[in-house]
Every structure is written in structure tokens, then in C-alpha cells.
Sequence to fold (406 residues):
Amino acid sequence: MKSNILLAWRNLWRNKRRTLITVASVFFGVLLSTLMTSMQEGSYSSMIDNIVKFYSGYIQIQHEAYWDNKTINNTMTPTGELFELASSVREVTHTTTRLESFALASSETLTRGSLVIGIDPDKENKITELTKWVIDGTYFRPGDDGVLIGSELARYLKIEVGDTLVMIGAGYHGVSAAGKYPVRGILKFPNPELNKQTVYMELSNCQNFFSAENLVSSMIIMVDDQYDLKPAMKELKAQVKSPYTVMSWDEMHPELLQMVEGDRAGGTVIKAILYILIGFGIFGTVMMMVAERTREMGVMVAIGMQKIKLAGILFFETVFIGLIGVLAGFAGSIPLITWFYTNPVKLSGNVADTMIEMGLDPYMYFSWLPSVFYNQVITVFVMTAIVAIYPLFMAVRLKVHLALRA
Fold:
């Protein structure tokens, strides 16, 4: 076995040109598939980050009855123990609480149903960067008695900054809720539905309005990115007990998860086509290698070399070519992906305008996940190992009298 491996290694460099051509096909296969996978996963991460940071957060702790019946009567009291538990999880970066319910927003004779959201201004801004959506007026401060409203709602009610918004609704356990609030600012979101119905209030002010003292609808928990989500969810679910429940972004946004999975499936098909092209490229160069050496193999068998030993040498040659190619591809992809990861590609034109309107950054992001690299290395190397069966098969079936005349 040792002699077979040594002969295979020496044979590779008898014809350096042929070897380097074959190695290059493997190298570019790994490089292209890694680049494509990194771009694909990076775009998913960017899209998920933008959506969860825009509103829902990565994780929410709620009363176990709230998600199926989102009424103010299914709210919860966030205890200090719950905050300590969330903060103790290593992956958690920020936490905040919200109180959400519905009310009629009115101005003179105009009225529209609205989503009322009570927030902690400072903590909320760290998570969703709400201040960047303020197009008129100012963002409010803790203890502020004013409101922020969506741009379309303000237009419909004919309200401007400094005007008074009247709200009427049903509070906790059916208590009447009514109040007049000065408009501190106008918000314009990428989502038209939020512009039509959203009213933000400072949390304590919102709790007073709904007679829901110390009650919140949910605790929002943030992690650095979606790859920290799984360990954080595992720890939180192990510690959070009834009557609370823990939900991740994919449970709260199943449509987003389906979109990502559907696009990932499409990307898998494209990568499969790429792998097929890579496989046939490798197979073609190996066929050329075997055809060029047919006479040589015939002479070796004629002077006494066993076919099985010859087959082993050819097999190891192909495996070595694959190994060199995937290692070179892996080494070459690291600086390339590092560059794109730290310097995302800025988009321009209509594509950039569309992404900005959707609330997304106009950049093409890349991923630095370890699986982006090792999955491609393993896949291409396995393909090379499969291709290595061909010279093994040809050596075993070699007909010496025909090979000597090749």
C-alpha cells in the first residue's frame, strides 16, 4: 500500500501540465461553489436580520395564551426574575418589553382603527432603530405623554406634529380607555400597512391608557445574528416555564421561513448543476489522463505488474489530485470570502432603490459560516473520489495486447 501511494505521488509530477489542469478544475469548482453559497447564505442572513430587527426581534417571551388570542387580557407581568433569566443567556444582547393592543384613533370627525404599541423608547431604539423612521417631529423620551403615528394614518386624520390625537378603546378586562395625546412625530415605514395604522406610545403612558399597570404583551430578546438563535432558544426554553412561553422569529414569521427555504431549494438546484459541470470537467481530464497512458499501462502489466496494483496507483493519483484541488480551493476561498464579508458589494440603480424602499440595505452580503467552506470541500472531494473509480475500472479491464498498440 505504501509503495502504491509513493508511486502515485511520483506519477503526478511526471506530467505537471496534465496534473495542474486537473487540479485547476477542482480548485475552481470549490472556489465557485463556496462563493455562491456564501453569497446565498449572506443574503438570507441580511434579510432575516433586517426583518426581525425592524419589529419582532429574534425571540419573544409571551403569556402562553397570547399568540393564539392576541388580546390585552392575555398579557403578562414581566418579573425581575424573567429579566435576569434572559440576561443570563450568553447569546442575548438586548431585551425590551412592549404592550400592544387596538384602539380608535380620531381627529375631529375622522376615525380609524389603529395598532397601539407601548414601548420603552431607549431600549426599543437599540433594537429596531425606530428613530430612523421619523420623517417629521422628534422621537419621544422616557415618560413622554405624546405619541408617534404612521404617515398614512396622519394623512388620513389630517394631523401634523403638535396636533392632538384622540384615542378610544377597551382596556384591561373591558375597562374603558380614552385619552388625548399630542403628536410628537410622524413615522414612515417601508411597510404601507404599518404607516396606515400604527401609533407608538411610551410604555407607562400606554399602560395607563389601557388600565394595564405593569402589564406587557411580550418581552423582545435580541441576539447578534440568527446563528446565535439556536443555543439561546435551547437555554431559554429549558428555563422559561408556564404560564410563559418562548417563540423564535421563524415561529412568528412562518411565511419568511418558507420564502427562505424555497429560495434555498432553488439555489440547491443551481449548485447541483454547477456540481454536475464540475464533475464532468474532472471526469474529462481523468479520461484524458487514462487515454494518454494506455500504452504505458500496457507495458507495465506486460512486464509483470499486477492489474490490481496498477488500479490502486491510478486510484490514488486521482484522489491526490482531488485532495490538492480541494485544499487549494479552500485556501483560495478564505481570503476571497473574507474580503467580500468585510466589504459587501454595494448595489446601485433600480435594484438598490427597491431594496431601500423595502427597508433593506442596498448591499450584497456574504456569509462566513464554517459550513459554507467545508460543505463545498467535502462535496467536491467526494465527486473526485467517485470519478477515481473510472481509472481503477479501466486498469482492471485492461487488455494488454490492445494497450501495447495504442
